[in-house]
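Morning F.,

Quick status update on the modeling queue. The single chain you submitted on Monday has been processed. Sequence for confirmation:
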Amino acid sequence: MMQGDYENALLQLRKSLEIVLRVHGQKHPDVAHSCHNIGTVYDKQHTKKEALEQFQKILEIQMRVYGQDHPSVADSKLGMGQVYAGRNGMDLARELFLECQRIHSKVYGPGHNETAKAANAAQRASQCAEESA
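Structure tokens below.
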């Protein structure tokens, strides 16, 4: 995707977020979904600070709506961990991946694919952190 496509996508996503906010207010899961889409575009643009700000908003909404041990919260932590990993923040990424693994294990069980995915991400982050130390 070309840079202009990202800018257009951000413009459209921000318009969508404005509508969702007007309809639902700030504490609705649809707001989190809109913020996720914006954060993903920022991450693809390598605008990590803005991506992390969006993922933090998502996490706050989801924790308020669903509680700490919901799969959506785990998925947001996984997304934040991926952004941190892309910024060479492997230690923080590892912590987020481990928290995601804990939630998925509690909800789905230790043998579930989502649990394994988070565990593998945590292991990769640990290896990268060790290699760069």
